[in-house]
Design brief:
Helix content is 9%, strand content 43%. By secondary structure, it is mainly β.
Length: 284
Amino acid sequence: MLNVGVYKGFRIICIVAVLFSAAPAAAQRILFESLRDGNFEIYAVNADGTGLSNLTDSPAADRQPRWSPDSSKIAFVTDRDGNQEIYLMDANGGNKINLTEEPLSRADGFPEWSPDGSQIAFHSTRDGNPQIHVMNADGTNRLNKSNEQALFAAPRWSPDGSQILYDARRNVGISVIVMPANGSNKVNLTVDDPPSHSPRWSPDSSRILFVSERDGNSNIYVMNADGSLQTKLTNDPAADTLPQWSPDGTRILFTSLRNGKDEVHAMVLFDELRCAMARMRSMS
């Protein structure tokens, strides 16, 4: 389709910087993890590719960096204490602090800042099976918010701060769950089997991107925040995964194997929805 582009190599960094320029980052710095020095480290680079710096420089595995909303802090995951913990550091890599302080038999991951920067949601096994927890940004007041017998991962705050999305493995499948930030009234937005996962809020909190295998392979879907109007956006035999919104909610980045290797693609959401609605009308 004319509205789908493919981006390779260094151009991937440029497109990410353009599409997500509204994301907080000091001087539009991009955070990423890399094995370029032999183990996982966290790096920052300017949007034009200059100013590359290793922020962690440790023999440990340092991963999953997340900017705070005001760009002053970075939450990340590290095993430097023997197990996976969530740490906090300054934007320049200084003042690293362990926020979770788990026993060696437990692990934490997938930190996600609340929009106002006051809290961090995260995945934790501190209660035995993986659950979604929330803590204050200084590591205090850690609470289990999902609190049920299922396997949970990758929490996502809504941009308005009122709700949290996450993946849940229940019974035989994986589904997308939403709950208020206080942990009450959890709602399963998708069916458990086949799997649906990797949800992402739209910038205005009204819609959700997700990946589903309901048609036999991974495709990108969009739905309203209440789970209604689930619409397929991609329709390719290859696997399409990891969707992300542009700040204005009109474009989507995703990875795809449609050319035989992992590449980053972009599409215009309005055009894709119009095509999807036309397909639905033709089948009715």
